[in-house]
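Support request, please re-run this one:
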Amino acid sequence: MKRLPAIITLVLSLCSSLATAAPAATLTIDGNIALTNVAGKRQYEFRDGDLKALKQTAIVTSTNWTTKKTFRGPLLSEILSKVGAKGGTLDVCAVDDYCYNVPVSDAAKYGVILALSSDGKDLPRDRFGPIWVIYPRDDYPGVLNSATYDARFIWQVTRITVK
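Re-run finished. Output below.
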């Protein structure tokens, strides 16, 4: 009988750690896109595995919220190409409904990525993840180190609407 509480504690501990594990990233692209994969909806949904299966690009940079780190993720331009995006603006939205307009031209001009990891570790939700828009800020200090671009470093991204 004395072992029963230890077993219950172990089971509760395992359940707790599963509940707090980083959620799988889901990114929905909608709006003016040519390719869809959700029946009856004009949208393309990327699951965590889908995003990780794409070529990963590294950006080594600092942000206003971090020291210099190596961020990795797919290029935003490749994701937009994959869904056949046609438009000039992206409405990038986070889990808390924060949305900000990002010019489509930024994707190719700066090599913007949708970071899934930082220094080799997946981005957890409480640390900007699971998806964070990252610009190579340190490569363009006179341009990208400004309030205009700081607002485009959107974290916890869940949806991008092509306009």
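DSSP finds six helices and eleven strands in the chain. The helical segments are 3-19, 48-53, 76-82, 104-110, 141-144, 147-150.
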